[in-house]
Design a protein that fits this description.
By secondary structure, the protein is an alpha+beta fold. Helices cover about 50% and strands about 20% of the residues.
Length: about 160
């Protein structure tokens, strides 16, 4: 009789393997000085429908060599999709931070990708960035109230009991 290959066993192995990788990484980091590399990166998230329902995953953290023009971003996204054998025509929408390099009507990444896709795509301004822009126009009284609410919510979360 071999070792069980049920979903619980495989799930446990995956969790243990992930934990082992994380522990080795932290152990290695503790030994050395940390530094950052001056490389612009694009976080490339994908949302898709699976048989279990909607999913959202980080497909890649794409380094941009040189500049952060729309062309550079579009090329990095296209290369990531090609490397992962994902058809570019699977894209149905793109959410961005609203930067000109992403949304420019002639040279923006969304415009460039749209020209390579065989159908119309929807483009959205990320809701988090919309909220941040909106918050910049709030009167001081509202900002004070919001800061208090955030402080209270963070306090509640920090004291919450976590259980399954």
């Amino acid at each position: 009789m071999g070792i069980g290959q049920g979903s619980a066993t495989c799930g446990s192995r995956t969790t243990c393997g992930s934990l082992d990788v994380k522990l080795r990484l932290f152990s290695s980091i503790r030994k050395y000085y940390l530094f950052s590399k001056d490389t612009a990166q694009v976080a490339f998230f994908v949302r898709y429908m699976s048989s279990q329902g909607p999913k959202e995953e980080l497909l890649g953290l794409l380094p941009l060599s040189g500049q952060t023009r729309g062309e550079d971003i579009a090329n990095a996204v296209q290369k990531c999709l090609e490397d992962n054998k994902i058809d570019l025509n699977k894209i149905v929408s793109i959410a961005t931070d609203g930067a000109r390099s992403m949304t420019g009507k002639n040279k923006g990444a969304t415009t460039i990708l749209q020209s390579k896709i065989n159908h119309e795509i929807l483009t959205f301004h990320c809701i988090i960035h919309q909220e941040a822009l909106c918050a910049q126009t709030f009167p001081a009284e509202i900002v004070e109230v919001m800061n208090l609410v955030i402080k209270i919510v963070n306090r509640i979360l920090s004291k919450a009991l976590y259980h399954r």
